[in-house]
Design brief:
The termini are far apart. A two-stranded antiparallel ribbon has the order 1-2. The longest helix is centred in the first third of the chain and has 29 residues, at about 60-90. It has a single domain (about 5-175), classed as Four Helix Bundle (Hemerythrin (Met), subunit A) (Up-down Bundle). By secondary structure, it is mainly α. Helices cover about 75% and strands about 5% of the residues. It has helices at about 5-25, 30-55, 60-90, 95-100, 110-120, 135-155, 160-175, 190-210, 215-234; strands at about 130, 180.
């Protein structure tokens, strides 16, 4: 196989490696590096598809490899983050013997992310947008939330239950039928792209004002704007 065909696959493999390293750091409670490697994986995830299209070598093998890498970086790694969070949290009213198994619930995110990715590969409606929450957005939400709030979650009496409620909500959003916009531009005119421009402006403000602590709010903003756009359309 020529280097031209292998190059996008090398980039995809770098995405997968980032996800593996992020998961290891997450399970050791090193949330800053877990987030850093998830972000690194997202960068590689963007450029592998771009490189494949640019070189004219996009194909089913690359698509399957990309989904596998994405489930590691945006499924297993954030699941490891959440499992680590649940290991630090408390569960009032739950016997200690049962509470010890609650961190395993975090790995539901990996399972539902795999379902989301399989659905994306087969769903022809998702060419210029998404149906359900994209896995990178979900991964960035949990990784940045853990980095900013893990001390608070560990000390709040019902912190564990709040994280479990978040798991249920994010798993539902991943496989839901809610249309969500993508940052894909056919052109740069205002009329057809105002939702994207508004999101980019507000996301930039949140990150500028709060730094990496603003990333969870950016993901929440993305979901709310998608819901508002759907409500307006109907």
């Amino acid at each position: 196989m020529s280097l031209k065909k292998q190059f996008p696959q090398i980039i995809t493999s770098c995405n997968l490696l980032c996800g593996c390293v992020a998961a290891v750091f997450a399970l050791h409670g090193n949330y800053p590096l877990a987030l850093a490697f998830i972000v690194g994986g997202a960068v590689f995830d963007f450029f592998d598809g771009f490189a494949a299209r640019l070189l004219g070598v996009a194909g089913p093998f690359g698509r399957e490899l990309d989904s596998l890498a994405d489930d590691i970086t945006f499924g297993f790694a954030p699941a490891a983050v959440v499992a680590s969070l649940l290991g630090e949290a408390t569960f009032p009213g739950l016997p200690p013997a049962m509470a010890a198994y609650m961190p395993w619930a975090g790995f539901l995110i990996a399972a539902f992310s795999a379902l989301r990715l399989a659905k994306f590969n087969l769903d022809e409606r998702q060419t210029m947008g998404f149906i359900g929450l994209p896995t990178p957005a979900n991964a960035l939400f949990w990784a940045s939330l853990a980095l900013g709030l893990h001390d608070d979650i560990a000390h709040i009496a019902c912190g564990g239950w709040l994280v479990l409620a978040g798991i249920v909500l994010s798993c539902w959003l991943l496989v839901s039928e809610i249309p969500m916009f993508a940052l894909k531009f056919k052109h740069f005119g205002w009329r057809d792209n105002r939702l994207r421009y508004v999101f980019i402006f507000l996301a930039g403000f949140l990150v500028g004002a709060f730094g990496w602590r603003g990333l969870p709010f950016v993901v929440v903003l993305y979901v709310l704007l998608s819901l508002a756009a759907n409500a307006r359309k109907h």
